[in-house]
Design goal:
The chain is an alpha+beta fold and about 260 residues long. The protein is about 30% helix and about 25% strand. It has nine helices and eleven strands. The chain has a three-stranded antiparallel sheet with strand order 1-2-3, with no helix packed on it. Strands 5-7-6 form a three-stranded antiparallel sheet, with helices on one face. Strand 1 and strand 2 form a beta hairpin. Helix 3 crosses helix 5, helix 3 packs across helix 7 and helix 7 packs across helix 9. The C terminus is likely disordered.
Length: about 260
């Protein structure tokens, strides 16, 4: 049995109520189809079937954390994991064992990341005992210190708690979300993607992109530039959980900025 033909995406264009996807068929003829904004949002059923933690299916994360050059990818992801349990008092108290079990990352990896976050004053961690006279400890109580960030990104928890994805793949999607802001399409230089992930090989980055595409987090992607420059950037059309205040309507078209 031969390989199933997959149409090659040529370009993605934004229209007033969605996106037009141009693709090339077997005969190398270019065709296109329309995709409405709403089809890029995760459905209600998908949201209920995701790895929901704490009280949320998604959580706002400060861009100062996502784009920080002082924090490792592991520290950034751990910050998101812990914050998904945050209450109205800006504290959270998930155990390391539970975080490890639900996220698929090792106990040691998470402990080292939390130590790094506390030293860099992103969170405060205080150990608590079961009872005042008990020498045993329950778990840490985390307080979040990064409260002054002007810009935040709405991160769905089905990506950060996905056991089948490694830390780089998870943070690549978070990075794309932070870049796209109020929209679904973004064009990014390859060198910027490699720098964020700390990867020299584009093939490795490409494998992460293809994994996210296969799992439905990225709707599609293609070269973002043409001719001589065509290999220097990638255009992404991504799916996301969209809070009501960020839902795109036709009226947003005049002020919507597409990178």
């Amino acid at each position: 049995m031969g390989n199933k033909f997959q149409a090659k995406i040529i370009k993605i264009e934004q229209e007033s109520d969605g996106y037009r996807i141009f693709h090339q068929n077997k005969e190398k003829v270019v065709d296109s189809y329309k995709l409405h904004y709403g089809l890029l949002n995760f459905t209600i059923n998908e949201q209920y079937n995701i790895n929901r933690r704490g009280f949320y299916t998604a959580v706002y994360i400060e861009d100062s954390v996502i784009f920080s050059e002082e924090l490792s990818l592991t520290e950034k992801l751990t910050y998101i994991l812990v914050k998904s349990f945050c209450n109205t008092q800006k504290t959270a108290f998930p155990s390391i064992e539970y975080l490890s079990k639900t996220s698929g990352h090792s106990h040691t990896t998470l402990v080292e990341a939390i130590d790094g976050l506390t030293k860099k004053e992103c969170i405060s961690a205080a150990r608590r005992r079961k009872r005042p006279d008990d020498k045993r400890y329950l778990n840490n109580i985390y307080t979040f210190d990064k409260t002054g960030s002007q810009y935040k990104t709405y991160v769905p928890l089905n990506i950060v708690f996905a056991k089948g994805l490694n830390i780089r793949a998870k943070m690549l999607y978070v990075f794309l979300l932070a870049k796209v802001k109020n929209g679904y399409m973004v064009v990014l230089p390859k060198k910027e993607l490699k720098k964020f992930l700390g990867i020299k090989s584009w093939k490795t980055v490409s494998n992460h992109i293809k994994t996210l595409h296969r799992l439905g987090f990225i709707y599609t992607f293609c070269n973002g530039t043409k001719e001589v420059e065509r290999e220097k950037s990638i255009c992404f059309l991504i799916r996301r959980i969209c809070p009501k205040e960020l839902v795109i309507t036709d009226e947003d078209w005049d002020v919507l900025e597409v990178i």
